[in-house]
Amino acid sequence: QVQLVESGGGLVQAGGSLRLSCAASGRSFSNYAMGWFRQAPGKEREFVAAINWIIGNTYIGDSVKGRFTISRENAKNTVFLQMNTLKPEDTAVYYCAARGRGYIRSYSYTDQYDYWGQGTQVTVSS
Length: 126
Fold this sequence. Notes:
Shape: globular
Number of strands: 11
Largest sheet: 7 strands, mixed
Order of helices and strands: EEEEEEEEEEE
């Protein structure tokens, strides 16, 4: 069974930075894409960033473009989310997601991902 393990969440002041990581494991897992979504209380789950595992192309959500970046460590099936210039509105539970099969309709669609992490809380104070 594929498992995603997240780390790096916490409390940070506005303007600060955090780095999240997520490692995928499972003997039958063939990584095609990994990404990050977030969900604040009373809000829909929102696309943050994704990376194609084959070629390394990245996709960034409009609300975090210019502040967040996504990267990978291919051999370890690990994805990172570097969050800079954090704002209070970035406060949310951040979820790691992975897709283990080819062809994806959109990296921003939650239903395109096969596996999900447990979520990690990010809180930005003013």
